[in-house]
Amino acid sequence: MAGMCGRYVLFSSTETLVSALTTRLGEQVHPVASGGGSGGHIIGPSWNTAPTHRILVVRRFRGKLMLGPAVWGYRAPWSPGRVLFNARGETAFDKASFRGSEPALVVMDGWYEWYVDGAGAKTPYLVVGDGVLTVAGLVRPDGEGNLRSTVVTSRSVEPVAWLHDRMPRLLSGGQDGGEALHWLDGDGPSLRALASSPPGGPDTAALQAREVDRRVGDVSVNGPELLRDVAGGRPGDIMGE
């Protein structure tokens, strides 16, 4: 597992996401009519989302907050086949690789991170919070009919700083939409300020990490069994099991 925030989970239904996001942003969120999913999902639920997969993002489109699909990762112009799935918040707005991007929220139920011990052994953990997470992201069209997205990262903070030195730039909500809405509607200076600052507030304080199935390292394995709490020997509580 190279890089930070290269796997995450999103299994909540569209109905659940729209309700949670509307409350978080203080403004109605509208799902796209169809993204190819089924069973109450714009896209199919995933317990092992990886770069190049389809993900869900919220962005301002024609005055409305729209929840719809995007492809995770910008194509790297200097390296065919490589994608840029993270953007370092401190420098993202200075990099030609992300020029022409617009702000978006990447929506997830949690993300995976690999802890590396002193001997170099890697152990996967799932980081979850108190419900749906909204993460700073960037989007732009790729000229081939796809909207592409990348996840903005920041330096890691407690309570998960021990796990990795970087983390997704979580954006808090609130009655006025909080950081999340300010990210979507902000100007250049405010976006730079948010991207380059670490996350905080109750959303960040609620984060917890637990060891999960090592098979998450295999992108072909994708099912709720990956969320099993290895230490506790039980399925993931975030799914109500």
Automatic annotation (TrEMBL):
EC numbers for this chain: 3.4.-.-
Phylogenetic placement of the source organism: Bacteria, Bacillati, Actinomycetota, Actinomycetes, Mycobacteriales
Enzyme class: hydrolase
Keyword terms of this UniProt record: Covalent protein-DNA linkage, DNA damage, DNA-binding, Hydrolase, Lyase, Protease
GO biological process, one term: protein-DNA covalent cross-linking repair
Family: Belongs to the SOS response-associated peptidase family.
InterPro entries according to UniProt: SRAP, SRAP-like
Protein name: Abasic site processing protein
Record carries keyword Iron: no
Pfam families: SRAP
UniProt xrefs under PANTHER family: ABASIC SITE PROCESSING PROTEIN HMCES (PTHR13604:SF0), DC12-RELATED (PTHR13604)
Gene name per UniProt: yedK
GO MF annotation list: lyase activity; peptidase activity; single-stranded DNA binding
Gene3D superfamilies in the record: SOS response associated peptidase-like
